[in-house]
């Protein structure tokens, strides 16, 4: 049965405002509307939305996504296979970064010593073996958008980033018993948003919100973040979602 915009938003975990925006830019216009003007999304609309979110997760800008999925030669099955390959590679990299976070926590406790090289093990955003395949299908510019800035940093900049991340985590941990809607919490989470934007080229608010949800959905992230204070991951998830919803266009 067709679904209303609120039902789709709740099903997918994105805001109604985002769905309205997709409609306004002709990226995803629902198949039908009621006499009262309510948008009605078909199963085909939901499949298109799934593709959009896959591309967003991989860092493609909305303009490029629209070009891709409206191209008569676009092959959805082929795209899904490549999405799977790239996400598995992304997971492999995240696993490496998580191990580095775990070691960093151990070092801060005085349990181990890390070299500067150890501190940045896993921070390699340039070697996805499926990038060339994506470039051939959808263009260099879109793939370049998904590459991080980290590999361009000097060692001094990398060390600074590590210290900055630790400072923000500690600040948020001190606020975790307050409301995520408080001015202090939103100011701190704004720092986290700009930190991620500067360090991993993530300036998309809905992706920022999705990262927050990952902090709770993936127990590895939860365990690592909650080392700074029990409940911090859930607090950050809520604060990030509020920040994203407030500042989305």
Q: Name the assembly state.
A: single chain
Based on CA atoms alone, the radius of gyration comes out at 20 Å
Number of strands: 3
H/E element string?
Answer: EHHEEHHHHHHHHHHH
Which band does the percent of strand residues land in? under 5%
Q: Which features does this protein show?
A:
249 residues, mainly alpha, 13 helices, 3 strands
Q: How do the strands and helices of this protein lay out in sequence?
A:
Blueprint: E1 3-4, H1 5-12, H2 16-24, E2 32-33, E3 39-41, H3 43-57, H4 62-69, H5 76-108, H6 116-119, H7 131-138, H8 140-146, H9 155-175, H10 183-200, H11 205-217, H12 219-225, H13 232-247
Antiparallel strand pairs: 1-3, 2-3
Structural description of this entry:
- The structure is a single chain.
- With 249 residues, the chain is mainly α.
- Helices cover 67% and strands 3% of the residues.
- The chain contains 13 helices and three strands, in the order βααββααααααααααα.
- It has helices at residues 5-12, 16-24, 43-57, 62-69, 76-108, 116-119, 131-138, 140-146, 155-175, 183-200, 205-217, 219-225, 232-247, and strands at 3-4, 32-33, 39-41.
- A three-stranded antiparallel sheet has the order 1-3-2.
- Helix 3 packs across helix 4 (62-69) and helix 11 (205-217) packs across helix 12.
- It is globular and about 65 Å long.
- The model has no long low-confidence stretch (mean pLDDT 80).
């Amino acid at each position: 049965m067709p679904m209303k915009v609120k039902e789709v938003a709740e099903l997918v975990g994105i805001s109604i405002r985002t769905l309205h925006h997709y409609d306004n830019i002709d990226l995803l216009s629902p198949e039908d509307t009621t006499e009262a003007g309510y948008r009605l999304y078909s199963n085909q609309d939901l499949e298109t939305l799934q593709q959009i979110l896959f591309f967003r997760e991989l860092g493609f800008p909305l303009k490029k996504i629209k070009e891709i999925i409206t191209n008569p030669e676009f092959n959805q099955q082929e795209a899904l296979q490549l999405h799977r390959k790239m996400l598995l590679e992304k997971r492999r990299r995240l696993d490496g970064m998580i191990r580095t976070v775990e070691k960093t926590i151990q070092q801060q406790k005085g349990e181990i010593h890390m070299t500067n090289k150890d501190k940045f093990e896993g921070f390699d955003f340039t070697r996805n073996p499926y990038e060339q395949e994506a470039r051939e299908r959808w263009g260099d510019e879109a793939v370049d958008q998904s590459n991080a800035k980290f590999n361009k940093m000097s060692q001094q900049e990398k060390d600074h980033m590590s210290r900055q991340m630790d400072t923000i985590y500690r600040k948020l941990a001190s606020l975790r018993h307050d409301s995520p809607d408080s001015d202090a919490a939103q100011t701190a989470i704004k720092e986290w948003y700009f930190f991620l934007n500067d360090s991993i080229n993530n300036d998309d608010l809905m992706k920022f919100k999705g990262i927050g949800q990952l902090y709770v959905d993936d127990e590895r992230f939860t365990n690592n973040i909650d080392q700074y204070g029990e409940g911090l991951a859930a607090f950050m998830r809520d604060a990030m979602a509020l920040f994203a919803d407030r500042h989305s266009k």
